[in-house]
Amino acid sequence: MAELLKQKNSPYWYIRYTDDIGKRRKFSSKTKNKSMALKIKNDYEAQEMAIKHGIVEKKKKKSDISLNNAINDFLDDKKISGLAIGTIKNYRLALVNLQDALGSLTSIYKIGPTDRPVIRRYFRKTLRLNPQGTNIRLRSIKVFMRWLVKNGFLDKVPFEIDRDTFIKIKDVDKKPRFLMPGEFEKVMDEFVNDNMKAYCRLAFRLGLRLGEIPTAKLITPKRLRVIGKGDKDRTLPFPEDLLSDLETVQNTNYNTDSVSWSWSQAAKKSGVLKPCTCGKSDWSEFAKSDPCPYCKKPFDRNGNGKTFHSLRHTFACRMIGKGVSLLVVRDLLGHTTVKTTEDYLTWGQDYLIELFSDGNGVNWLYDALSDPNWYQNSTTIESASA
C-alpha cells in the first residue's frame, strides 16, 4: 500500500511504498497538486497489482532501475554513507532536484543528452539558486552519474555537466566576496554566542573551510594539520594567539550549519550581508518584493556573498595584497588547481568601473587589501609561508 507525503526542501508530493524486499522507498510525483499526486499513486498501485498477478511482466534488467531506486542505492552505498554529514546532505538535496526535474519513476536507462536542457531549465527557472549553490548541486549530480557507471548501471555518463553552461555567470556581473576593512569586526560585535566567534576567527585568519575547522589538529605548537576535501590534508603555519580559539572549537563541537546560520544572522544585523548583489537593498525590502527594486535582479538569501565562506575569500585577497605567491595561496587554501584560486580574485567589469570611477580606486584597493589592522599579528602567516 502506497501513501502520499510531503518531502522537505521540495514543493512536490512524494509517494512512499514498500519494495519486494520490504524496504521503504519513495519517489516524486512531480506535481504540487494533491489530486494529481493521488492519481499517480493510484496508477502506481494498479501497476504493481498487475505485476503481482502476472498480468504485466516486471522488467528485471539492472539498467531498467528507476531513478528513485538508483538514488536510494547510491545513498546506501557504504562509501557514500560514510562521508561527512554535510556532504551527504548536499547529495540528498541535489538528487531531490534531479528527481523533480526528470521524474522519480524515469528509468536511468532512458536518461540521455535530451535531458540535459531539461535539467538546465529546471536549475535556471525553478530553483534560481546562487552560482555557488548551483555549482554544489551540479557536482553532486556528477558524482551520482559517475557512480552509476562505476557500479555497472550505465555504460557511460549520459551527458556532460559543466558549471558554465548551467550557471552562465557573466563576468560583468561578478562581484568580490571579500570583507572590507572593519566589516569583520562589525559582524563579530553582533554575535550573541562568544564561542562561535572562535570559528570565525580561525576561518578569517587561516582561510579554512567551515567543515575543516572542527577536525583541525596541532601537530606542533606552530603547525596545524587540516583535512580538506577528499580527505586531502595540508599543514598550515599556526599563530599561537589562536590556540584558545582552537581549544574552544574542540570543546564545543558545534554543528557547522549552526555556525553558518549564526554568521548570517550577525552579518544581516550589522548591515554587512545584503539580500542582493547590488548592495543597495535591505532585508525589509527582501520580505516585501522580488526582484530587487534597485537592480531588478532576484533576491537571494546569500545576497551579496558576505557569507561565512567570504572569510576564506578575504584570506585569499589579503595574502595576494601582501605579495604572497598565487601558488602559495593555492596551497594554503587547499585548492587542487590555481584556476580555483584565481576565481576568488576575478571581479566583474562593472565592479571595477565603479571602483576606479573616482580616480582613487587603485589606492583604495591597495589600502583595503594590505591594511594590517584587518587582524592581529598579520605577519605570522606571510613570514611562515614565504
Please describe what this structure looks like:
By secondary structure, this protein is mainly alpha-helical. It is 49% helix and 8% strand. The chain contains 18 helices and six strands. The strands form two sheets. Strands 1-2-3 form a three-stranded antiparallel β-sheet. A hairpin with a 5-residue loop joins strand 5 (223-227) and strand 6 (233-237). The radius of gyration is 24 Å and the shape is globular. Mean pLDDT is 77; it is low at 59-63, 168-173, 359-366 and 368-386.
Distance between the termini: 66 Å
Secondary structure category: mainly alpha
**How are helices and strands ordered from N to C?**
EEEHHHHHHHHHEEEHHHHHHHHH
The chain-level mean pLDDT equals 77
Shape: globular
Identify the strand order in the major beta sheet: 1-2-3
Task: Note the beta-strand portion.
Answer: 5-15%
How big is the Rg? 24 Å
Percent helix, as a range, is 40-55%
Low-confidence stretches: 59-63, 168-173, 359-366, 368-386
The major pleated sheet works out as: 3 strands, antiparallel
Q: Count of helical segments?
A: 18
Number of strands: 6
SSE arrangement:
Elements: E1 3-6, E2 13-18, E3 24-28, H1 34-52, H2 67-76, H3 78-81, H4 85-102, H5 116-127, H6 131-150, H7 163-167, H8 183-189, H9 194-206, E4 217-220, E5 223-227, E6 233-237, H10 243-252, H11 256-270, H12 283-288, H13 310-321, H14 326-333, H15 338-344, H16 349-356, H17 361-370, H18 379-385
Antiparallel strand pairs: 1-2, 2-3, 4-5, 5-6
Helix pairs in contact: 2-4, 4-5, 4-6, 8-11, 9-10, 9-13, 14-15
